[in-house]
Amino acid sequence: MRRLGVLVLGAFALAGCGGNDAVNAAAKxxxxxxxxxxxxxxxxxxxxxxxxxSWLPDPLDGVIGSRWNNxxxxxxxRSYLLSWVWQETGPGAAGxxxxxxxxxxxxxxxxxxxxxxxxxxxxLIPCFSDAAGTVRLGGRTxxxxxxxxxxxxxxxxxxxxxxxxxxTVSEHVAPPFGYRKVRQNLDRMLRNLVLVxxxxx
Amino acid sequence: MLAGAAASALAAxxxxxxxDQLSGAPPERTVAPPRPDEQHLxxxxxxxxDNDVEVVIPPLHHQLVTANVRADxxxxxxxxxxxxxxxxxxRYEQTPAGxxxxxxxxxxxxxxxxxxxxxxxxxxxxxxGKPALLPAVRFPSDPDETLLEDNDVAILLxxxxxxxxxxxxxxxxxxxxxFDVTSIRRGFVGGGFGGRRSxxxxxxxxxxxxxxxxxxxxxxxxxxxxxxxxxxxxxxxIANHETLGLVDLGPKHYFRQGTSMxxxxxxxxxxxxxxxxxxxxxxxxxxxxxxxxxREGTLxxxxxxxxxxxxxxxxxxxxxxxxxxxxxxxxxxxxxxxDHVATDGTVYKRGTAIPQRADFNTxxxxxxxxxxxxxxxxxxxxxxxxxxxxxxxxxxxxxxNRRAMDGVLPDGTRLPLNARERNQGFNSVLRTTHRQNFLVxxxxxxxxxxxxx
Lengths: 201, 453
What we know:
Number of helices of chain B: 12
Distance between the termini of chain B: 34 Å
Number of helices of chain A: 3
Largest sheet of chain B: 6 strands, mixed
Strand order of the largest sheet of chain A: 4-5-6-12-11-10-9
Helix content of chain B: 25-40%
Oligomer: heterodimer
């Protein structure tokens, strides 16, 4: 009992000094070894915690810089967008697309605004809308958004707040995955996210 | 062999058996008055209030059977069919609790089987300067592959009871030997008002249709919004050929109390609708871009006569917003633009709806059964769609409404919208597969019209 208390204290101490957790205790998963360095680098770059996916739909791997990672962007406001996509052309089961985005908005928790590209007035609209309830998995409560803009268009998106920042994971609804399967995938992704904190210089 | 296949298909319930299992007790219905002279009217239809809007509750089950005439002796066939219809009339009231039977005849029948009498008695649309029954056409938003059909006859069966439909189909297509069935189209419309679970979502989920999970729980139709607001449906006799004075009925007024019917089938892309259009945009798309703010999740939206749109209103809103809404664009043509006094003295106020819609959701792909599987591009498995059925005074009147839906207004103004673009109302999530126009004779001439002359 006493030993457990020491371990817990140790864990808090590690978190408090900005070390790399790299472990999702609830799901008992780690940021995969081949992905960990990239996510640590990202956390350092945005100077905020980020969430490493320990599971993505096969063959997506969550490795920044891998052959499936088609977007790796950090904005001047430190917000980031990472995207992994697999595409195959062909009829029926031979074709399809798997596309997952992970975003973070360090230092803000409000849903960002996007330009409505379909409107003549090019008005600003919420980037995530049509909230369809919440899910609680992996120690996080996420809001489900069905209608999303920009790189998340035609995706279902989960958004959650952590440490004064907003984070999202989304997946494209497209063959081979329908809405129901995408929700199952997102549940699994959310459950298996691993917090990566910026390293102390 | 083919007849046997059609008979088996007519007898089978398939996925639509779920309608009975999921809908529970049918809605309460009022007792019907004496049977109307019009075939297309249903009596005893319930009206409820949802979100302070009066809403008509259509029958749960719908079946539309198209056929060609097999019989050579038309007069004998006329008697046989008439007797069969009389038998159904004796057994069922023309109500949702009973059975609605509407026989509509195509140009192929009139021009091929009774050409001389047709030349004399064909109703003529004065406003259009054309016959009241026209061949189907493709509209600007229709894909090139939309099939323009040419069936002799379409028989629309409507009831809260699937057994009634099955019995009627047995009588008309099993016991009789006058038709070659060409297609069977089935579907449903299902309430869910007052927060109750409706049929579309339950049935789509059971069938595993893509996007089924996204349909609102109590939606009347797959696309979510209620479509049978009382104000959005033409009052009792307005769609008759004669009511608005559009149609010259010829020397004997043979088709007085008749109407025109348009039938089309279209697929609905539910995932595109619910994943690409947020609630605010779905409202703007289904109704009008400037629709006053609604509480998110509202499904029944008022469509009052006094706020009916005009061509100028649609054009103004398009200039401002760059888009048109489905209802408001159609209202430029489908609502009376001024008060009208009918020949029977009834005053129809400006903004009154003219068409009487009888559309129903379906999982047919595109039909439940077809005798021309390749032509109709029959595919296995269920798919979300709509069998659109509407009664208008003439084919041209429907064509005007349908063109308005694409931004081609009745005064000839053509709003610069690309086919099926996102700003063109519903069109980007719809794909029409089939179309045909029919003429619905009055009840007294419903069986092989003109054959007796």
